[in-house]
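User: My instructor asked us to take a sequence, write out its structure as tokens, and then describe one feature of it. I'm not sure where to start. Here is the sequence I was given:
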Amino acid sequence: MANMEDVTRLPDDFDGRVRLFPLPELVVFPHAMQPLHIFEPRYCEMLLESLASDRLIAMATLTAGIGDLLSPKPALAPAVCICRIVSHAETAEGTHNILLVGAKRANLVREISTSRPFRMAEVEVITDVHPPMDAPSRKMIRVALLDAFASVIPASANVQQNLHELMAGQMGLGPITDIISFTLGFDCQAKLELLAQANVYERAQRLIQLLKKRSGQVHPGGDQSGGPPFGGAGGSDATKSPPPGFPPRFSLN
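Assistant: Let's start with the prediction itself. The structure tokens for your sequence are:
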């Protein structure tokens, strides 16, 4: 796999138009990896078109959840994640297994009329905003976030070692917030709010609040409501698989 910077960079000729893959109760974040099994004909067509061009798909969230799947055009949350296909394998049955990496957060501007069987939209890419602050303040926020995260993850030696490596690494605050937001089973609305937040400092502060509120109640693998692990969900469009352990396999470089 190419390094993460290359994977999350949009093509130079990106014109703001994206293919939409709407699913219930799933919110994908930049820098996170999401496996999907695609079998519906309209989304198989979307996948083949994407593979033949920019390899991009925008993951969108149905606002009414699974109950709105049968609507002709279910309502979508305005915040979406533009993802890149980094792995693809066709099965003997003609279905597809793919691995997506979140590239950029974006806002839906308008849907585009098209003769294609899948939905398309014009989006505005959201760029992370880093408020000016001195190095000690940046470090303090990062430490506070990782400490809050440590309070809600299992105490196994392997997980704690991975956390310590993350704390000692050079990953920026923005990617860290996205990985944690994706990994933990917060409710869908909370995840959408985090995805929509461009200000990295505000996003980290909100995530710290959520982690402290749910300390001892949320663990990788699902939230206390009995929902699917890692924010995944069932549905007619695809079968999601939870990311394998912590941290998610967001990069192989």
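For the description part of your assignment, you could build on this observation: Helices lie at 4-7, 41-51, 135-150, 157-168, 173-183, 188-196, 200-213. Try explaining in your own words what that tells you about the chain.
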